Amino acid sequence: MTLHHLARQTALQFPEVTVSQPFGNGCDVFKVMDKVFMLSFHLEGKAAINLKVIPDDGTMLRDIYPYIRAGWHMNKQHWVTVYEDENLDESLVQDLVQNSYDLVVEKLKKVERLRIEALKSIPSN
């Protein structure tokens, strides 16, 4: 599965996620309650995604995985860029997308967080 397809599929499972292209074709912006948690784009011909991280986690991830670097065009402490790679760990990508979503949800207003929790508790078909 390609990086973009895996990231999109993972992100769209979460409540209140919207996707738009405010920067034009070629850059999908994923938001929860109007707050960005993922960008999906191509850079130098390679698929890439930007994800929010805890700063210490970002440092560790960059040290361990050669396909994870400082966030392109983002705050380098709080964002990482994951590039398409033949050694890409799919479960790691899914975890990083989930963690990015959760980090953004943590900062939402209480009423928005409660809405998301309520939507998560509804069984899916």
Automatic annotation (TrEMBL):
Annotated protein name in UniProt: MmcQ/YjbR family DNA-binding protein
Pfam family, one: YjbR
UniProt lineage: Bacteria, Pseudomonadati, Pseudomonadota, Gammaproteobacteria, Moraxellales
Species of provenance: Acinetobacter bouvetii
Superkingdom to which the source organism belongs: Bacteria
